[in-house]
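User: Hey, quick favor. My workstation is busy. Could you predict this chain's structure for me?
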Amino acid sequence: MNRRPARHAMTTTDVTMAYLQPPVWIIRPQRAWWDIGLSELWTYRELLYFLVWRDIKIRYKQTVVGAGWAVLQPLATMALFTLFFGRLARLPSEGVPYPVFFYAGLLPWTYFASSLAAATNSTVEHERIITKVYFPRLFLPLAGVLGSLLDLGIASLLLFALLPVYGIVPGVRLATLPLFVALAMVTAFGVGLWLSALNALYRDVRYAVPFLIQLWLFASPVAYSTSLVPEPWRWAYGLNPMAGVVEGFRWALTGRGAGPGVALAVSVLAVLVVVVGGLLYFRKVEATMADMV
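Assistant: No problem, here it is.
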């Protein structure tokens, strides 16, 4: 004869212990790695604001000059490059005074370089947050890109002060300037997605990025004009997204240089490819990011 085990009734102590035991939350991915999750990004939109504000406060905390560094650094660079490339090398500047020519190209480049560096290091710098709480990791590189807009705005004040000094009055093309700012933002965000994800896996990336930015500077028409590039190859030069951004800035501010054309269209297509690929790769790495950082 088979005997069934007797069932013991739960005592008051057992019920109390079960009630007081804290719940266990298990976080699992609810969507595929190729799903960006726009609704989730909108839900956490306030977190993006606090991440941007936090990065700005940390950047200027306990500094003497403060936000003045956003002007002093490009101003010193402009003076140095004007001396060597404008006076000594006498590089062509499309009929624009070389200080204005160089600063109009340096402005978007400085924003791109600082945004790219901030986006690359965002995943490693926020290691404690990533390993403790869940939030869309996509906000980390995005906050680095948005936080650098303040420096861009402050540095632009010097440029608009230089224009009347050299007798340059921006025309209606100035209305297109926000479009080139947006293109610089998307470029920094797209490249930053790749590098921030790679930086979470390989720490060598953070040491290679300054070297990459330095090489990219000389590969972009910041100190020189695209007129030095042979005409048949200018469309290929547009594969460098910052070439379209820099020339677009100059065209919008001074009316000189390469305006909208084939090279700019190639730059836009290159940025779209980089951003889409960066989003997909970042989402794929995001699932194991907390274990890698």
